Amino acid sequence: MTDQSRSSLMTRRAVLGLGALGAVGVAAGGWVMLSRPSFAGQALSVSEAHKSATGGQIFLIDIRRPDEWQKTGVGEGAHPIDMRRKDFVSALDQVTGGDKAAPVALICARGVRSARMSNMLTEAGYTNIIDVPEGMLGSSAGPGWLQTGLPVRDVEG
């Protein structure tokens, strides 16, 4: 093997090695984005959230996307407000009457978005945000709304 072919082989290995490291970094970054952030506030099981929402003790907000509501329905007692709405806080205020101390529980599919939004709303001055970490589809926190067999309703539009 000539010095030039050894050099070329080493360069290819170096490029492949850097590419592999980059792929690992991207995969790790994606895992961080999909992992559930910590939330220091209160949490409810889906059964507790359902009972409290239908009993009028909390405002249960389903923050998923409309296409997700269409696929699974929205939990009985929940108010669907897409978390991506620019006017999310205004829509939430309409539900709660603008009371930042009102008990507001957030639910999403698997508890990742609800934990993020719980942190954001707490930072925005809401003082009684509650997470439902099981979500509609289940997570490490529990089986979720649908698998628990809790009632859902269809969402129009």
UniProtKB/TrEMBL annotation:
SMART domains: RHOD
Pfam families assigned to the protein according to its UniProt record, in alphabetical order: Rhodanese
Signal peptide: none
Gene3D superfamilies: Rhodanese-like domain
PROSITE patterns in the cross-refs: RHODANESE_3 (PS50206), TAT (PS51318)
Domain Rhodanese, residue spans: 54-148
Name recorded for this polypeptide: Rhodanese-like domain-containing protein
Species of provenance: Roseovarius phycicola
